From TrEMBL:
Substrate binds at Y165. CoA binds at T17, G18, A19, T20, K43, I100, T101, E102. This is Succinate--CoA ligase [ADP-forming] subunit alpha. Its EC number is 6.2.1.5. It comes from Streptomyces pyxinae. The gene is sucD. It catalyses: GTP + succinate + CoA = succinyl-CoA + GDP + phosphate; succinate + ATP + CoA = succinyl-CoA + ADP + phosphate. The lineage of its organism: Bacteria, Bacillati, Actinomycetota, Actinomycetes, Kitasatosporales. Pfam families: CoA_binding, Ligase_CoA. GO terms for molecular function: succinate-CoA ligase (ADP-forming) activity. Belongs to the succinate/malate CoA ligase alpha subunit family.
Length: 294
């Protein structure tokens, strides 16, 4: 089983013909992702060859969906054009849009988030500024290296791309049902809570690892949700225990004001909900391993 992405998913790539899109389309194909098209209005009607696999280019998301039955779009569109690209995906009502792009203005992210909601949330947005998601052995939509781990029993949701990769590597012998990088911007689509609910409903996920970071209150809200709704064991890690107060660290959403948004406050909220929280990624992986092996 998996959440949001399976081997049946038909994936298109908005921005496929750019340098970054080309690079990661090739890697996704190598991981077995069923990529059925790219989107670039200026190159519609052409195709791109990836080591013998010919991928057609369409003029719009709607056309790509009509011709291929695509149900997932991965966006490698520059920040200035990302809002229009996401709105196009929402208008086409593609079920899943994975926005990899970093550096999108917060008001643009807020605008397309609100637009998706106004349109009935028919398009699930993951990101922006995220590594995407992977269901090992089935499909990879984004930039997560496909060879870190194998299919397994752990579900992972993370704000951080690099910590996603580290946790997958630390627990590679056990493996993952799905790993979802939700991004660390102040405004994102899919949240910790959305992923927790999906993993709770997935019969193949036995344990959930949740990685958060300083700033905002997403982890505290997730803790409340876990307490009320999640029966599976959850192990957590919060990045930023040594971050200085009032300084933005890494992600645009990772800013601490006074005691609000600190790693310690988030750790305490999660532990109050029954979540075991590690002080380092390695310690967190050991906690997960102990639960599964115990």
């Amino acid at each position: 089983m998996a959440i949001f992405l399976t081997k049946e998913s038909k994936v298109i790539v908005q921005g496929m013909t750019g340098a970054t899109g080309m690079k990661h389309t090739k890697l996704m194909l190598g991981d077995g992702t069923n990529i059925v098209g790219g989107v670039n209005p200026r190159k519609a009607g052409t195709s791109v060859d990836f080591d013998g696999t010919s991928v057609p280019v369409f003029g719009s998301v709607a056309e790509a969906m009509e011709k291929t039955g695509a149900d997932v779009s991965v966006l490698f569109v520059p920040p200035a054009f990302a809002k229009a690209a996401v709105v196009e995906a929402i208008d086409a009502e593609i079920p899943l849009a994975v926005v990899i792009t970093e550096g999108i203005a917060v008001h643009d992210s807020a605008a397309f988030w609100a637009y998706a909601k106004a349109k009935g949330n028919k398009t699930r947005i993951i990101g922006p500024n995220c590594p995407g998601l992977i269901t090992p052995g089935q499909s990879n939509a984004g930039i997560i290296p496909g060879d870190i781990t194998k299919p397994g029993r752990i579900g992972l949701v993370s704000k951080s791309g690099t910590l996603t990769y580290q946790m997958m590597y630390e627990l590679r012998d056990i493996g993952f049902s799905s790993a979802v990088g939700i991004g660390g911007d102040p405004v994102i689509g899919t949240t910790h809570i959305d992923a927790l609910a999906a993993f709770e409903a997935d019969p193949e996920t036995e344990l959930i690892v949740m990685i958060g970071e300083i700033g905002g209150d997403a982890e505290e809200r997730a803790a409340d949700f876990i307490k009320a709704n999640v029966t599976k064991p959850v192990v957590g890690y919060v990045a930023g225990f040594t971050a200085p107060e009032g300084k933005t660290m890494g992600h645009a959403g990772a800013i601490v004001s006074g005691s609000s948004g600190t790693a310690q406050a988030k750790k305490e909220a999660l532990e109050a909900a029954g979540v075991k929280v590690g002080k380092t990624p390695t310690e967190t992986a050991k906690l997960a391993r102990a639960i599964l092996e115990g």
